[in-house]
Write a structure and sequence with these properties.
Number of helices: 3
Radius of gyration: 14 Å
Distance between the termini: 32 Å
Strand content: 5-15%
Shape: elongated
Structural class: alpha+beta
CATH class: Alpha Beta
CATH architecture: 2-Layer Sandwich
Order of helices and strands: HHEEEH
Length: 104
């Protein structure tokens, strides 16, 4: 995971429901999600397509396999942030979970 991704994750931590979340938890979850990604080549200007079947609606495309994977990583990050803000369930992937801390 690049420093830019960690920085973006830390921004999500601050934004998500106003409470701090564990950045390591995000990194591990995102890595697990990326490991479950399914890729294919499609007939498009951005021919590389990837999705994470366990995360409904999470997909990305790119002009290269690397760009597709980077775009997919960003889509996962956005999906996690949206799910946390909206109090939507986030499924476990390879035993990894993300839960917002309960405020006392």
């Amino acid at each position: 995971m690049t420093q830019a991704h960690i920085s973006e994750i830390n921004k999500i931590n601050i934004i998500s429901q106003g409470v701090a979340l564990n950045p390591v938890m995000f990194c591990e979850y995102i890595q697990a999600a990326i490991s479950k990604a399914v890729y294919e080549v499609i007939d498009d200007d951005e021919p590389y397509y990837g999705e994470v079947p366990e995360l409904k609606g999470v997909w990305a495309s790119g002009k290269t396999p690397e760009e597709c994977r980077d775009n997919l990583r960003m889509a996962i990050e956005d999906w996690i942030a949206f799910s946390l803000r909206s109090n939507l369930p986030i499924p476990a992937i390879e035993g990894r979970t993300i839960r917002a801390p309960v405020e006392a």
